[in-house]
């Protein structure tokens, strides 16, 4: 296989994944249009159809935003601005902005800088936004709170777990990094996490919709020891 063919493979996967997601959203819009064209459409059906069209249009705009962000990452146009920040402050800020969605379980501080990460807060906030948007896409009619909590995985990393499961904490093993098969927004979250020396992906438990964002711990991050 030529080098050009090998380089083209990820983009072929991207096109396939994106085509599937776009077809789903556009088909949903066309279905609602057919309903609205019916001879008899009561007011309740009209309101529901218009709300569905609006939701699908927002999802399509989300795909465009994800593609734009992925393009910037792949072209090397994003330069992270690193600083040391407490994980509770970092994720808690997103929780405050989206209180209806995110229930942040702040970790218990066990010492100075025990929960500090060396990262770009804006990039992490974009990842959190992508995760919450994915929950909305997976179950748009639900109003369930997404829980997030942190734990130290090793001396090098802090794990932030997101889950909609209310039965208890979710284990972090097995874990796999997000791929295009998991959806464009999840893949963008993974590539964004790589920019700050972390990773993002799915937890391989029986619980549905559990994600893990692994961030470097301040004291162990190479860039913090310069």
Q: Can you characterise this structure?
A:
By secondary structure, this protein is of the alpha+beta class. The chain folds into 2 domains: 3-74, Helix Hairpins, CATH 1.10.287; 83-225, Histidine kinase-like ATPase, C-terminal domain (Heat Shock Protein 90, 2-Layer Sandwich). 47% of the residues lie in helices and 18% in strands. α1 (3-36) packs antiparallel against α2, α3 (87-97) crosses α4 (121-138) and α4 (121-138) packs antiparallel against α5 (184-195). The chain is globular and about 65 Å long.
**Number of domain units:** 2
- CA(first)-CA(last) distance: 42 Å
How much helix, percentage-wise, in residues? 40-55%
Main beta sheet strand tally, sense and closure: 6 strands, mixed
Which structural class best describes the helix and strand composition? alpha+beta
Tell me the overall shape. Answer: globular
The CATH topology label of the largest domain is Heat Shock Protein 90
Major sheet: arrangement of strands: 2-4-5-8-7-6
Mean pLDDT, nearest integer? 78
Q: How many separate helices? A: 5
Report the C-alpha radius of gyration, rounded.
20 Å
Architecture of the largest domain, CATH level 2? 2-Layer Sandwich
Within CATH, the superfamily of the largest domain carries the name Histidine kinase-like ATPase, C-terminal domain
């Amino acid at each position: 296989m030529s080098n050009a063919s090998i380089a083209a493979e990820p983009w072929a996967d991207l096109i396939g994944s994106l085509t599937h997601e776009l077809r789903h959203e556009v088909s949903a819009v066309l279905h609602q249009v057919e309903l609205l064209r019916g001879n008899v459409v009561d007011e309740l059906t009209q309101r529901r159809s218009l709300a569905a069209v609006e939701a699908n249009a927002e999802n399509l705009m989300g795909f465009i935003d994800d593609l734009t962000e992925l393009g910037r990452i792949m072209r090397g146009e994003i330069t992270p601005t690193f600083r040391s920040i407490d994980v509770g402050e970092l994720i808690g800020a997103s929780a405050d902005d989206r209180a209806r969605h995110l229930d942040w379980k702040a970790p218990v501080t066990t010492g100075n800088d025990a929960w500090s990460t060396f990262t770009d807060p804006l990039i992490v906030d974009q990842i959190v936004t992508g995760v919450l948007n994915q929950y909305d896409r997976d179950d748009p009619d639900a109003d369930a709170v997404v829980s997030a909590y942190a734990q130290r995985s090793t001396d090098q990393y802090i794990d932030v777990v997101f889950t909609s499961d209310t039965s208890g904490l979710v284990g972090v093993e097995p874990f796999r990094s997000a791929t295009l098969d998991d959806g464009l927004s999840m893949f963008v979250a993974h590539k964004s996490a790589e920019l700050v020396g972390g990773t993002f992906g799915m937890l391989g438990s029986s619980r549905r919709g559990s994600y893990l964002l692994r961030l470097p711990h301040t004291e162990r991050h190479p860039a913090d020891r310069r």
